[in-house]
Every structure is written in C-alpha cells, then in structure tokens.
Amino acid sequence: MDKKTLDWLEDSDPVIRFRLHRDLLKSDPKIIQSSQNEIEKTGWGAAFLSHQNPDGHWGLAYYLPKFTSTHYTLLMLRMICFPNTNPIIQKSVEMILDQNIAQDGGLGHRVGYPTSDVCIVGMFLNIACYFKATEDKLKTLIDFFIKVQLKDGGFNCQYRKKHTHHSSVHTTLSVAEGLWEYERNGYMYKLDEVKRMRQEANEFILMHHLYKSDKDGHIMDEHFLSMHWPYHWHYDLLRALEYFAFSDSPYDERMKDALDWLESKRQNEAWSLSPRYAGQYFFTMEKVSQRSKINTIRATYVLDKFCHTR
Question: What is the C-alpha separation between 15 and 226, in angstroms, rounded?
C-alpha cells in the first residue's frame, strides 16, 4: 500500500486508525491500544454511547427499531471494536442476559417472548463474549445452539416457522462469529461442543464456496456480491471472508472464487462501500463512495491473510 493511501487512512476516525494500526501496519501494541482507547472518547464510538437512554437501552427497546435498537447499537459497538472493558456497555449486556432469556433457552427479541431467533442469538453471543459477559449467563445460549443446529452443520432462523431442514448462510455466519468470540475469549462451558459446531458451520459455508449453490453452482443471491458496513445481520462475501481471516482459518481452495471477486473490486488501491440497508440510523459513519476507508482496510487485511497462501 502506497504512502498516499496510508496517509488517507491515518487521517480518520479512531475506529479507522485502530484498524489500520492493528490489521495492516502491525504497529507497536502501545500505539494500537492508544488508538482503541480513543474510540471511547471521540468520534463514532463516543457518538453511539451518547445516544444511550438512562435505562441502559438505545432506541425504543432491545430490538426496536432497526437499526437504533439496543441490539444493533451493541452490535455496532462490537463491530467498531469499542473498548470491551467499558462498564456502561458491560452493564447493558448483563441486563439483557438477565431480562431477555426466552423459554427455549435462547434470547427473545423482547422481554417475556417465549421463542428465540437463532440469528439474533448468534449476534448477541458475539456481543456478549466480546464485552466479557459472565460465563454462567452464557450457558443457556450454548445449550440453545446445540439444540438447534441442523444436520447439514449450519443454522437457520426459519427452522421453527417453516420447518426447514437446510441451513442459511445468513444465520450460520452470525452463529459462527458468536461461537468464535466465545472460543477466543477463554470461555470453557462445553467448549468441545462449541468448537465442533463452529467447524461444522464453517464447512457448511465453504461447501457453498461462500456464495454458490451446492447443487448446481449458481450464485445463491446477487446481494452476496456486495461490501456493506455496517452489515447488521446481512450476509455478504467481504463479511464472510473477514470472519474466516479473523478466526485464523487456513486457506481453503473453496475460498478462491470469493477472493478473486474481492480482488477484482479493487480500484486505485481502494474498495467501495455498498449502499446502506434501509432503516433508522443515529448518524452516518461513511458515505457511499468508490473509496471507502473501512472497506479498504477490511479487504486489504483479507487479501493479505489469504493470498500469500494460495
């Protein structure tokens, strides 16, 4: 990456600077930590925190509305790598674990709701583990995933409503991200089962070459060929590749087409940002453009991680 591009990335919100120094420059740990600490104090991170309500929620409730609810704001704080020892955020996470556990052992999208959406539970496990939630409160979520994993190794949020037997890449990726966060943060409850589930979920995604039908090879959904940030619950190729890169997965030949697609989207040492999903937002972090700072860092990190091993 040339100096002009590096300077462009350096002159940014602390979220971008942190990712630059951690993922691309591999800077001294003190510089990386200092950049992350700034996320809490200024810019996007501080702005998200300023919208919190006195009761510990954001928006109107835990899952209302998209995307200014507590759930999606916490997911954004996770995505921007907000310092994970912040007591205000940790208190909100613990509150949800105390109030929103559903009768099926997962997490209800509102207090007292009897059943869970697997995708929501996967995203929240990611959030809760990142912000160091109490392990005892996570046990019910792990047991829930063991119960709802499908025979093909993945997960599907529609399995109860439509009695589907085939997993969804949307849901499977959300769960895999949560399980990886559980693993890497040192939680031990049924760890062998967690590792097994995640490896089977990985295989489900790889079996589809990240975006193709396992039956005839056609592209499952053209929307997968996009680069959204924030991506919320939606699946796309950059998000999937980033998960495999962050979780230290070895290069697999079935990633090749997705990596080739990502490489083909490079223009003038940068990558674009897809239009954001419809919904409510507190503010805009990056405007849609052909030169997205966050996606340039994300794409460069992925290609650096995998392309040297191909």
Answer: 22
In the predicted model, what is the mean pLDDT of the chain? 96
Q: Quick one: DSSP state of residue 212?
A: B
Candidates 202, 194, 127, 216; CA nearest to 167 is: 202
What is the pLDDT at residue 29?
A: 97
Q: Confirm if 136 and 97 have CB atoms less than 8 A apart.
A: no
Q: Give per-residue pLDDT as tens, 198-234.
A: 999 999 999 999 999 988 999 999 999 999 999 999 9
CB-CB contact of 301 with 21 (8 Å):
no
Residue 93 and residue 127 in contact, taking contact as beta carbons nearer than 8 Å:
yes
Q: How far apart are CA 199 and CA 277, in angstroms?
A: 30
pLDDT of residue 159: 76
- Count CB atoms within 10 A of the CB of residue 127: 27
Encode burial over 108-119: b for 16+ CB neighbours within 10 A, e otherwise. Answer: bbeeebeebbbb
pLDDT digits (tens, 9 = 90+) for 253-309: 999 999 999 999 999 999 999 999 999 999 999 999 889 999 999 999 999 999 865
Structure tokens, 153: 């190794």
Between CA 122 and CA 194 the distance in angstroms is 12
Question: Rounded to an integer, what distance in angstroms lies between the CA atom of residue 38 and that of residue 13?
Answer: 9
Cα–Cα distances in angstroms (integers) from residue 254 to residues 191, 202, 241, 300, in the given order: 27, 11, 11, 19
This prediction's pTM = 0.96
3-state secondary structure of 132: coil
Task: Tell me the β-bridge partners of 292.
Answer: 271
The C-alpha atoms of residue 35 and residue 41 are separated, in whole angstroms, by 10
